[in-house]
User: Which sequence fits this backbone?
């Protein structure tokens, strides 16, 4: 599958079979996370893999949708803001770095025939407690990981012209 086909095929999976994710596939997903680019190559993230059924069930305290915690794997991408690159205006790039890591995870998963669903709307405190995260390591994004039992929904996306501006367009807009 080429990259365009891959990004078109990826969707947010909301139903998972109980089929285990093979160790080899999980290793490739985690390698994709490791290879993700980060600002100044600081790699200010940690990835926590949750396979234990009780721990996954406990994660329902953070995000209660059943399809989330019944997937055979949950992955938490955690940021370490104190290790992140900070721009001269004091913008910490930790959230951007974590987003890139999650994107690599979900795209590699899809390429391997696995489903995922990017989740940012969760309660961080239960995740900290359940995963026993040390101070300074904050949960940023979660995804279930497994084999989909649902079908993709149609995707609504804005037109490229509504999202992309070319230099000449920006100049023209500023001149009017």
Assistant:
């Amino acid at each position: 599958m080429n990259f365009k086909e891959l990004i078109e095929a990826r969707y947010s999976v909301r139903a998972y079979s109980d089929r285990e994710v093979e160790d080899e596939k999980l290793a490739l997903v985690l390698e994709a996370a490791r290879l993700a680019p980060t600002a100044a190559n600081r790699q200010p993230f940690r990835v926590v893999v949750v396979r234990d059924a009780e721990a996954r069930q406990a994660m329902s305290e953070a995000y209660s949708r059943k399809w989330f915690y019944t997937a055979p794997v949950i992955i938490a991408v955690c940021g370490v803001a104190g290790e992140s690159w900070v721009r001269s205006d004091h913008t910490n790039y930790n959230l951007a770095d974590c987003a890139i890591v999650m994107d690599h995870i979900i795209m590699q998963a899809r390429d391997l025939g696995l489903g995922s669903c990017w989740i940012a709307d969760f309660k961080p405190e239960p995740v900290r407690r359940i995963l026993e995260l040390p101070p300074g390591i904050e949960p940023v994004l979660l995804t279930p990981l497994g084999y989909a039992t649902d079908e993709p929904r149609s995707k609504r996306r804005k037109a490229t012209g509504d999202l992309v501006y070319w230099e000449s367009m920006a100049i023209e807009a500023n001149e009017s």
About this structure: Strands lie at 45-50, 73-79, 115-116, 138-146. The first strand starts at residue 45 and ends at 50.
